[in-house]
Every structure is written in structure tokens, then in C-alpha cells.
Write a structure and sequence with these properties.
CATH class: Alpha Beta
Shape: globular
Structural class: alpha+beta
Number of domains: 1
Radius of gyration: 18 Å
Number of helices: 5
Helix content: 25-40%
CATH topology: Mago nashi protein
Order of helices and strands: HHEEEEEHEEHH
CATH superfamily: Mago nashi
Number of strands: 7
Strand content: 25-35%
Length: about 170
């Protein structure tokens, strides 16, 4: 017991909220898992360095990804792709273990021409959306370095996007 008769927490509190519950149950139940969706959209930069990346996946197996990068000349788009269930489970497990759903949602505030991303996790009823500066240098300059929980999930999506688009990297 701590001072004042209050108990001190000894471990991380249990996940809370409907989205956490759906994700937790979805890891075991395919019907529940089919309700989940994950979207990562990143865009911005000055015209000569404009960057756009879009990744959307659902538990039903549908996935799409697209990239356009003026600086590197990378362009690509998936058509009629399906996400392997192993990859979908890996993404959901990463979301679950990372703690990304514990990060508070905040309104985006970035300097003009910043490459801004958002990660949205949804079960069709609840959603959790996090905005972040996607370019590492811009994030440092603006003191907006994304938390490691978010970086872990975004890096998993970059890896999946690279596979889908058959590119070595899709990072900005």
C-alpha cells in the first residue's frame, strides 16, 4: 500500500473501450476480426517533394495501397489485392501489443508543407485516429516526433505496403 491508504498500480491497466475490446476479441474470432479496418494515409511536402501514401486494409481481406513521390519518382498502386490473413493477423497483433490505442487523440497542428500522416483503426462503430509528422527531419524540427507505439505500427504498414507495391521502401 502506498501513502494515504491508496493502492499503487503494479501493472498496466486492462485495455478499455469498445475498440480495444473488439480488437482483443478479434484476435481470436474471425467474425469479429472481419469488422476491423486499418488505414494509413500520408501526404504533404512542397510541390517538388510532394509525397502521398495510402494504405487501407479490412478484416474482409480487401487491401489497397498507393504511392506517389515527386522527389524519388516512386509511383504505384495495387488493384484488386487481397491481404494474406497471416499479414492481417501480424498487423492486428502489432496494434494490440504496441499500445497505440492508448495514445490520446489530438487535433493536428503542423507547419505548412509538413508531410502529415494519420493512422486510423476502426471496428465500424468506434475509431481511433492519430495524426503525426511522417518525415523524420520535419518531426524533429517541430518537436513532433511520433511516439514509439505509433512508429511500430506505421513501420509494419510500410513493410506491408512495400510488399504489396513490390518496392524496396515506401517510407517518405
Amino acid at each position: 500500500m502506498a501513502k494515504d491508504g491508496k493502492l499503487e498500480p503494479t501493472e498496466r491497466p486492462e485495455p478499455y473501450g469498445p475498440l480495444w475490446e473488439t480488437l482483443d476479441k478479434g484476435l481470436e474470432d474471425a467474425d469479429i476480426r472481419s469488422k476491423l479496418s486499418v488505414e494509413l494515409r500520408i501526404s504533404g511536402g512542397m510541390p517538388a517533394q510532394a509525397y502521398y501514401f495510402d494504405f487501407r486494409a479490412s478484416g474482409a481481406g480487401a487491401v489497397q495501397s498507393e504511392i506517389r513521390c515527386a522527389l524519388s519518382g516512386r509511383e504505384g498502386q495495387t488493384k484488386g489485392a487481397l491481404l494474406d490473413q497471416k499479414d492481417w493477423m501480424t498487423l492486428l497483433q502489432t496494434i494490440h501489443t504496441s499500445g497505440v490505442l492508448d495514445i490520446p487523440q489530438e487535433a493536428p497542428r503542423f507547419l505548412p508543407d509538413t508531410v502529415v500522416g494519420y493512422l486510423e483503426i476502426s471496428d465500424g462503430e468506434s475509431k481511433h485516429r492519430l495524426y503525426f509528422a511522417a518525415d523524420e527531419e520535419q518531426a524533429k524540427v517541430q518537436d513532433k516526433v511520433p511516439p514509439p507505439e505509433l512508429v511500430k505500427v506505421v513501420d509494419t504498414i510500410y513493410r506491408l505496403g512495400s510488399q504489396l507495391l513490390d518496392m524496396p521502401s515506401v517510407k517518405p
